[in-house]
Amino acid sequence: MAAVDVDSLTVAYGSVTAVDDLSFTAEAGEVTCVLGPNGAGKTSTIEALEGLRRPTSGRLSVVGLDPRADHRALTERAGVMLQDGGIHPAVRVGEALRHAAALYRDPLAPRALIDRLGLGGLERRTYRQLSGGEQRRLALALALVGRPQVAFLDEPTTGVDPAGRQVIRQVVADLRNDGVAVLLTTHDLNEAERVADRVVIIVGGRLVVAGTVDELTRSGGADEHVRFGAPAGLDCASLAAHLDGVPVHESAPGEYVVTAPPTPRTVAAVTGWLAEHDLPLADLRAGRQRLEDVYLRVTAEPAEPGAPRRPTTRTTAPAESDTTPPGTAEDAGTAAPPETAADAGTAEDAGTAEDAGTAEDSDAVADADTVADADLAEVAADWDRVPGAAFEAFWRQRNADDPDEDGADWAGWADGAAERSRRSGGDHR
What we know:
single chain, Alpha-Beta Plaits, 4-stranded antiparallel beta sheet, about 30% helix, about 20% strand, alpha/beta, Rossmann fold
């Protein structure tokens, strides 16, 4: 049985479908990268697997557990690294890890994690005093402290310097070698190609392609091309003439494609021409694309009937579960921002916190077009996730003919919301 099994998952926010009948699996001892454009449904999918979002339909299994029905049991077996938030800004590094370790029966030693993630000497610094890369490494340490069987890592290397990336890559490799199923999202395709065993690409909430990195990079017509990197602005006409008229073009600055089979003769001719002109060769891929080439091709292909599409407005009435505001518990009110979840100054453990779903969801309703179709209660509950101009336009439209009982205008409403946010410790707008 797969460590992670996604079967016909659909996640909708009101009339907006963010994930549409999505299916894939992730195995133990492998790194599975989930890729896709902004708004493709990646974070919604991961948060549904973490038990932090209620699926509209479909079946999910994580190490044999239902993420929502068995959520408490799952938190003991899963490590979660959120894309952003989930850690109180005033908590110190050492305190955060000691607090998280206390939540598990057999945790890793905080001191060992500090050394492993390159956080030595930072134990008494608060989260807000850390650099962006240090914050990401602390979030990863918190995800690992409980010895997880499956690790959900959302953009783990964002804002991390090259040395920090090397540390995170090694940690991910160690998790794979220890038999952990790693489900990782990233926009860094070079990073994905370095660490992934399998890749899942989502567009418009639907699966467009899945397979091992080797399968994807050796598939398609581009196998008949030679691709290489060299200084930008090469004389492609001169190189083409050297190759007996074979077309050569610069696909991106410093990236070149030779439209010819990757025979040893063609490769030798390309490298020989570069040597004659005293030009460096950055890389050469004969008969093999990069993952970036595959990604750009499959995400740019026009949708056909039955093919993946962008999120759409549903024509049927939403199910009862669709009206639950994203990131809220079944029996709770509006979601509190992650920064206010730990009033005592202790860290919010992303891997175990029941309310960690309040972290910002990059795949949630996020522009004026989708906001206009959304339910008022949903948008009001998560108004801090919506760009200010879009939310203001939405609010004005909904209240133009039906002002609230106090007759407050937009400015008055926004000032009141900001005051409520300050009282709760948030920083909205």
